[in-house]
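Form P-L/3: holo structure prediction, ligand 2-(butylsulfanyl)adenosine.
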Amino acid sequence: MNFKERIEWLRREIERHNRLYYQLAEPEITDAEYDALMRELQELEKRHPETITPDSPTQRVGGAPLEGFHSVPHSSPMLSLANAYSLEELQDFDRRIRDVIGNEYKYVCELKIDGVGIALRYREHRFQQGLTRGDGAAGDDITANLRTIRSIPLRVPADSPIEFEVRGEVFIRAIDFQKMNRKREEDGEKLFANPRNAAAGSLKLLNPSEAAERPLTAWLYDLRGITEPLSHFQRLKLLDKMGFPVNPHRRLCANLEEAWDFCGEWGEKRDSLPYEIDGVVIKIDSLEQREVLGFTAKSPRWAAAYKYPARQAVTRLKGITLQVGRTGYITPVAELEPVFLAGSTIRRATLHNEEEIARKDIRGGDTVLIEKGGDVIPKVVSVNMESRPADSQPFVMPDKCPACGAQLAKLPDEAIRRCPNISCPPQRLGRIVHFASRAGMDIEGMGESTVKQLLDAGLLSDYGDIYYLKKEQLLPLERMADKSADNLLAGIEASKERPLEKLIYSLGIKLVGAGVARILAERFGSIDALAEADEDALLAVEDIGPGIAASVVEFFANPQNREALEKLRRADIKFEAEKTADIEVEQIFKGMTFVLTGTLKNYTREEASEIIRRRGGMVSSSVSKKTSAVLIGENPGSKYDKAVKLGVKVMGEEEFNKLIGELRWEKKKM
Ligand code: IVH
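OUTPUT (holo model):
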């Protein structure tokens, strides 16, 4: 096999494994074996860049962030479906069909996936362009983001039609959604309310490499633009054969009764599916009959969406309590008479903010209707005014903190009130838990309940005190045996080695999540330098806006925060990013200018730049004839093309590693 054949074979094989893994959940090889195939292909493509085509599996993530999306007209409108909420409504739909085409017809029943509608265009066996539904007439071109979804084929078999369009739904599986939200919580990022919002938000990210990190997947249910006279059911089969992800839960039904059975079956099994569905779509199978039936202004006459009833329940709202978050924000919560709904017992529901409570006029003692969509937290839909107690009083948002009594602040541009007292107990608890969390200083054994115990015992007043805990203080605590005390102390000791970025994140500075913390650590290099930075110095850093700058300055100006920091310093927590001394390093890159492109396997860009600089080299952002070498990682961008054009040396990561030597030592010391 020559290299071209090998490349071709690898591409086919990788796409086959993508399908097995992402669509069929039946992997044939291990992740490591898959990675090995991918690495081999990358190596070969690096050596033979002329073979790289946009449909290579190495090219799923690539390209620079976009400025915005272009709107592109749909080949034919992406319509919505008429909804039916009962058997009667479906019978009306069925009757209207029989009135037009008689009794000879079949229905195809499919699950109605609760995701985001998309249209994919293929030409000459390659994925060309993908659009959102938009307003139905035109959608946004989100091709770069759709390419990152590994269940969407970048190419189709050679015997597929030369040009066609596929429509379907992009969604996120429940378990991936939970993982993603957990990670966001750890990173201090805003949570998504439900998988659909998360999918929609991800498809509209301007940076495709960010979209690639989102666990998006797809089911496709419509093949159009082909000439063969195939029915819808046959088309689904063909789509499947062409390698598209087609939902296996579909059925050809001879009449409405059979379709209704399908609705009933999935209504019962719906909670066992690993993704959200909100109903069943019932479609006429024959395309000729569809043509005869035609459309109304909004939807086809040949299809209907049977919508499952929302998972709702009626219960009593015992009262409204206020939750104080780590940064002092106050959120009202509905305390409910426990009620069982869609697989779990519900005791609380979110009320968002005081405006929402006023709008729905929700009061303590009310009988309320609650609803659980795909949403993480159930919500109060409405109040039954008829059963409202005579003595009921409208809810008044207190102006004092429910936990510490401090006067609450409300900024003009914020709908939520905030407790300004940094010593407020729930804030203090939240801050210490955040400090010790996995994404922060990662202190083994120091979860919320332990922190609570330590606070209650008066052993902590801020996170600085963690490092002064003594074994004899821990032992009297409940559930704290000799061994667990030792483990906790060992966990605390181990956390002293965390890198600067983790420490900065742990401090709990408002608006400083993991990403911002990394940037601040890289740019300022130490807690002291960061503490000294004024707003201008912070604003000079790329990606740091006025909100973050103000919040950082405010944090370090606060005497209580300063006190906690001093405790950390005295406990020998690392306040500086580690660097190796310049003298140890030979100046092998002296006089050279490097340009970096693509994702490196072993380093972040900042790390690689630092390695080059420490060896006397310079790093520039654009390629010119004067560039000494372009260091390329995975999915190199246009800088790579330019280097090839100008005849500038292209250096792979391996060559770079060989030059600098002692890779492992290097990484550890940085
Ligand atoms: S067929 C003419 N089939 O539901 C409309 N739609 O309310 C053809 N959806 O915009 C749509 N699962 O985004 C169809 N199996 C399925 C579906 C499905 C989810 C979505 C789709 C559409 C919306 C209609």
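COMMENT: The two ends are 43 Å apart (CA to CA).
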